[in-house]
Amino acid sequence: MHETPEDSAQQRLGAFLSLRGQPGSIEPLTPDASARKYFRIAWEGRPAVACVYPEAFDKKLPWLDTTALFSAAGVPVAEVYEADPESGILIQQDLGNRLLSTVLESPPDAQKVRLIDQAVSLIARIQAATELARERRSIAYRLRFDHEKLEWELGFFLDHHFGSLLKKPLPKGLETSVRQEFSSLAEELAEYSRYLAHRDFHASNLMLTDDGLIYLIDHQDARLGSAAYDLVSLLLDRIKEPPSKPLLAEKRDLLLKEREKLDLESIDPEAFEFEFDLVAIQRCLKAIGTFSNQAGNFGRSNYLLYISPMFGVVEETCRKIRRYPAIVEMIGVAQGKFD
Question: Most buried residue, 28, 56, 202, 306, by most Cβ within 10 Å?
Answer without folding.
Answer: 202
